[in-house]
Amino acid sequence: MTRVRIDMFASLDGCTAGEPSPEHPMGADWNRLTEAHIATRTMRERVFGDTSGGGTTGIDDQYAAAQFAGVGAEIMGAGMFGLHANPDPDWKGWWGDRPPFGVPVYVLSNTAPRPPIPMEGSTTFHFRSGSIQRVLLEASDAAGGRDVRVGGGVGTARAFLRAGVVDHLHVAMAPVLLGSGPRLWYDLRRLEETYEVTSEVAESGTIHVTFAR
Amino acid sequence: MTRVRIDMFASLDGCTAGEPSPEHPMGADWNRLTEAHIATRTMRERVFGDTSGGGTTGIDDQYAAAQFAGVGAEIMGAGMFGLHANPDPDWKGWWGDRPPFGVPVYVLSNTAPRPPIPMEGSTTFHFRSGSIQRVLLEASDAAGGRDVRVGGGVGTARAFLRAGVVDHLHVAMAPVLLGSGPRLWYDLRRLEETYEVTSEVAESGTIHVTFAR
């Protein structure tokens, strides 16, 4: 059965990035949130093409591998593709020539319709302006029984959580305090009541919190 | 050597209580934050006088016991004693006839000086209006080599954290989202940089986060 899944990064104080700036579109603190994740063997191989066998292989790596396993389609906000950063209709986003998804990716967009962009490695970007429910239906069909992953950003993730359609939320909480930035937990009071919540601490100090149905 | 210690409760979204109301001075969500703590054997015996041997004995209980161990003096804000709730100078606060501290307790207060209140069980309440540093100096003397514990509330705890005088912060994070209420982590950006941060998940699902020097 298709599940809807989200993986997010947050600080101990619930920020998903620092304040963005022109030099640091993800915020200057992004590295502090994702450091342990980027250091995993899975991310080194899958995203950075490093097949030398380096990278951590502990609990962080188990979560890194799980985020790719069994995913049949991806949904992301316009900002995560890069639509806001570069409105050029021929630009293919900032995921490079061979994005790490390897599945159809549905980009939520309110701008004019644009044709799909097929990329290397089985990723195709589709642009959709319909409701969450409608895009989710299409992505579920495309996933063919595998899971649909909502990749972010935080506004998109929260919209899906508030809509009540998410079956599995994993948050990697880094043991740092950012003090400001987008808030993961804003407006999600009592979210836990329809989930089982479990947590696990990785060797890096990252706290992996999972909301599962 | 005297250390300065703090133990706090927070939700996953960093709230230390829900919004207070006349019926619920600690906020209606206080029970959700403290449920696992109240259920420990240590709290049942020490605070509720239940010597029947009931209560949980796992990781939550280890932290409950640790919060009392080696403490020689306590500091708390006026609200935690009850000064705001009841300005009657003869009222002895809402900790009952035999408060669980068993040591001198320094209550921060900007109101008129009042004499100390000796209670049953070695607790004496002292009222002080000086600076954090000055009260801390006096409490350290009184602790006689044992630790000084800053009991709260959250405003008092944050003031001591911002002043840079806290050696050990333990936060019991309950896996719930309150959505609003006083914020533990507000204005503490990069606090972790002068501490070692470790975390541990209890059987109850509570995440115990420790900042230690």
Describe, in plain words, how this protein is organized in 3D.
Two copies of one chain form a homodimer. With 213 residues, chain A is of the alpha/beta class. Chain A has one domain (4-16, 71-212): Dihydrofolate Reductase, subunit A (3-Layer(aba) Sandwich). Chain A contains six helices and nine strands. The first copy, chain A, has helices at residues 30-38, 41-46, 59-68, 78-81, 132-143, 154-162, and strands at 4-11, 71-76, 104-108, 117-118, 124-128, 147-152, 168-174, 196-201, 207-212. Chain A has a nine-stranded mixed sheet, with helices on both faces. The radius of gyration of chain A is 17 Å and the shape is globular. The two termini of chain A are 13 Å apart. The model of chain A has no long low-confidence stretch (mean pLDDT 92). The A-B interface holds A 12-14, 175-180, 185, 187-192, 197-201, 205, 207, 209 and B 12-14, 175-180, 185, 187-192, 197-201, 205, 207, 209.
- Rounded radius of gyration of chain A (Å): 17 Å
The third-level CATH topology of chain A is Dihydrofolate Reductase, subunit A
CATH class of chain A equals Alpha Beta
* Class based on secondary structure composition and strand pairing of chain A: alpha/beta
Query: Helical stretch count of chain A?
Result: 6
